């Protein structure tokens, strides 16, 4: 099946990446290769792009799409969490730019057998971005305690009905294991008051987001490795991160701000004595948002936000 994904904030990301023709760049979420294509198009023979993705379908599609640039392209199947190690393995110590486009691709959402969407009734529960991983959404839904389910739906889904949803999931699986997206969606819908589900969007949306984030450790990976990526940048290099929901955006905003101003001295100290040095500056004081035209063409771009950090 063909892998497709409309690259959000494409022009804005490439502009802010400030591509140098002879630079080395990393696309840590290669996907279908949309952002990578535009970077490679701007590189001279001395330039290079390393594309990383954990999804085998994405790797195959991007490799095919980017064939015209194969002399300047290195594709690695891995999680961007391993970026530092993967770059060291191929002899790259520093890069001139890194981009991340977080979230789920259109292909993953629209391919029923991947189990990411509540819009399919009979799809197997999966949600693994890397299908080599052992734990799937099915394992979480059927194996987590009611308290654990409540925690992830509350924290990652930000759903005010988290406690009731967790309760209904546990009750449903007691009758029979929850194997499909349809079974999970039915349990969630039963937990949401009808008056709310009619006006607040699909009642399963937030729970599916929460389970997907837990399944793929998305927030932990982002939180634990952004500092590392900033350290990989050469002077003047930039890190561009596109987020698709508030939890990711909050992490990026906080880590960028801390790297710009890491001083931990009390506010009333006349001079800094902690010795922590700024690593650079945040170029996007406010997130860069999609234009109305882009949202009209691609409604999934509506929640996207781009933040940019430049290394000193």
Fold and architecture overview:
This protein folds into two domains: 191 residues, 3-Layer(aba) Sandwich (Rossmann fold), CATH 3.40.50.150; 87 residues, Orthogonal Bundle (DNA polymerase, domain 1). It is built from 14 helices and seven strands. The chain has a seven-stranded mixed sheet, with helices on both faces. Helix 7 packs across helix 11 and helix 12 runs parallel beside helix 13. The protein is globular and about 60 Å long. The chain starts with 9 loop residues before the first helix and ends with a strand. The mean pLDDT is 94.
Set out the fold topology.
Blueprint (H helix, E strand, L loop, with lengths): L9 H8 L6 E4 L6 H8 L6 E6 L2 H10 L7 E5 L5 H7 L5 E7 L4 H5 L26 H7 L2 H12 L4 H14 L5 H11 L2 H4 L7 H12 L1 H15 E11 L2 H15 L19 E3 L9 H6 L7 E7 L1
Parallel strand pairs: 1-2, 1-4, 2-3, 4-5
Antiparallel strand pairs: 5-7, 6-7
Helix pairs in contact: 7-8, 7-11, 8-9, 12-13
CATH level-four homologous superfamily name of the largest domain:
Vaccinia Virus protein VP39
CATH architecture label of the largest domain: 3-Layer(aba) Sandwich
> What is the total number of structural domains?
2
Q: Please give the radius of gyration in angstroms.
A: 21 Å
Strand order of the largest sheet: 3-2-1-4-5-7-6
Brief synopsis:
It contains 14 helices and 7 strands.
Defining traits:
single chain; 312 residues; alpha/beta; Rossmann fold; DNA polymerase, domain 1; 2 domains; seven-stranded mixed sheet; globular
């Amino acid at each position: 099946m063909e892998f497709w994904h409309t690259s959000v904030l494409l022009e804005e990301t490439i502009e802010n990446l400030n591509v140098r023709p002879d630079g080395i760049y990393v696309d840590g979420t290669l996907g279908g290769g949309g952002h990578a294509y535009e970077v490679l198009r701007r590189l001279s023979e001395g330039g290079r792009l390393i594309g990383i993705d954990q999804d085998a379908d994405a790797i195959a599609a991007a490799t095919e799409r980017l064939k015209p640039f194969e002399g300047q392209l290195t594709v690695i199947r891995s999680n961007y969490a391993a970026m530092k190690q993967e770059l060291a393995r191929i002899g790259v110590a520093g890069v001139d730019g890194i981009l991340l486009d977080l979230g789920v691709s259109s292909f993953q959402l629209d391919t029923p057998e991947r189990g990411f969407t509540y819009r399919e009734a009979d799809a197997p529960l999966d949600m693994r971005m890397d299908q080599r991983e052992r734990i799937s959404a099915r394992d979480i839904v059927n194996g987590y305690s009611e308290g654990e389910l409540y925690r992830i739906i509350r924290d990652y889904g930000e759903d005010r009905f988290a406690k009731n949803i967790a309760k209904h999931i546990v009750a449903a699986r007691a009758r029979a294991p929850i194997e499909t997206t349809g079974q999970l969606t039915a349990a969630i819908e039963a937990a949401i008051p009808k008056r709310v589900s009619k006006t607040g969007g699909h009642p399963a949306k937030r729970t599916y987001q929460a389970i997907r984030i837990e399944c793929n450790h998305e927030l932990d990976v982002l939180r634990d490795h952004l500092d590392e990526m900033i350290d990989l940048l050469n002077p003047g290099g930039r890190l561009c991160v596109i987020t698709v929901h508030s939890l990711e955006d909050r992490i990026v905003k906080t880590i960028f701000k801390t790297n710009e101003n890491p001083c931990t001295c009390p506010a009333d100290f006349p001079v800094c004595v902690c010795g922590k040095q700024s690593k650079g500056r945040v170029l996007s004081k406010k997130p860069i948002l999609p234009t109305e035209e882009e949202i009209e063409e691609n409604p999934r771009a509506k929640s996207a936000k781009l933040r940019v950090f430049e290394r000193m």
